[in-house]
Amino acid sequence: MPANPSHRLCIAPMMDWTDRHCRALHRTLTARARLYTEMLTVGAVLHGDRGRLLAFDPIEHPVALQLGGSDPGELAAAARIGEDLGFDEINLNVGCPSDRVQSGRFGACLMREPLLVAECVAAMRAAVAIAVTVKCRLGVDDQDPEQSLFCLADGCAQAGAAAVIVHARKAWLKGLSPKDNREIPPLDYDLVYRLKRERPGLAVVLNGAVASLDEARTHLDRVDGVMLGRAAYHDPATLGDVDRRLFGAPTRAVTSMEAVERYLPYVREQLARGTRLAAMTRHMLGLFAGRPGARAWRRTLTVESRGSNAGAAVIERALDAVRVAAERPPVLELA
């Protein structure tokens, strides 16, 4: 199946990070990258507070709902809910290595059960008209990555998955924390390249320690898409040139200043609904990383957003501090 053009650059689902406010901020910087929710368990989707868990703003499109689960029927029901709410894609998590996820029989431990993963994909494909994708690892623990990755990918493709997003390292389910699993064992980009080369009809998106748009462009010579994670979150300004450089859009890069101005109407609307300012500003701290005024920006947002009555004026004051710093003679400032 050919890759959806918006899979060319994706922003990874990250627990406690890529909530709706983060996604709205990222959308001010790129109109074309595909955004992903934090992982939601099927139990939460079927029985939880959907208004709180699944709410998103129309500006976020294209946006995918990532699900965690292993029961085909429950996943199909959750996928239908996601489609009814307007999500553009349903993504199955087969990559998270945390103990909590393993105990629920979903995430990376499903790399050991490729037939079940394929059954889950098939059930969701039968339930919805939107794309169903899978995010996985190369394998887990003592699995042979070549065998585990290709077996899982083939099963997903046969079941109708629109794309396979591969975090290009194995997961160790025992003895390593989720944080360590982001850095150990070593990455194997070549195996992901080989998957695309030997399965040319399968849309393959590469994930794992991609730190810049330059790196993303290099990978895009070998795969259909790239997924950015921590690089996009800690330095969101990176996304400002995505549409021009990776999608060929006839636009100039969006500056951090412009992103803040675009985000302010969203902030004001959310404040009017009772959202606390700090829930939104926490995602903005890295916008001016490495630039004059970065320290004053972070300090103002961090300190002044905490109050229960904090409003958009806090962001405007922080932005003024950046403007003042930008007008001073250049000095070396640590981000």
Give an account of the 3D structure.
- By secondary structure, the protein is of the alpha/beta class.
- The chain has two domains: 243 residues, Aldolase class I (TIM Barrel); 72 residues, Four Helix Bundle (Hemerythrin (Met), subunit A), CATH 1.20.120.
- The protein is built from 15 helices and nine strands.
- Strands 1, 2, 3, 4, 5, 6, 7, 8 and 9 form a nine-stranded parallel β-sheet that branches.
- Helix 6 runs parallel beside helix 7.
- The protein is globular.
- The N and C termini lie far apart (43 Å).
- The model has no long low-confidence stretch (mean pLDDT 93).
Count of domain modules: 2
By CATH's scheme, which homologous superfamily of the largest domain applies?
A: Aldolase class I
Radius of gyration: 20 Å
**Which geometry do the CA atoms define?**
globular
Write down the secondary-structure element order: EHEEHHEHEHHEHEHEHEHHHHHH
Number of helices: 15
End-to-end C-alpha gap: 43 Å
From the 3D coordinates, which CATH architecture of the largest domain would you assign? Alpha-Beta Barrel
CATH fold type of the largest domain = TIM Barrel
> In total, how many beta strands?
9
Helical content class: 40-55%
> What is the averaged pLDDT score?
93
Q: Kindly estimate the percentage of residues that lie in beta strands according to DSSP.
A: 5-15%
Low-confidence stretches: none
Classified by CATH, the class of the largest domain is Alpha Beta
What would you call the structural class?
alpha/beta
Largest sheet: 9 strands, parallel
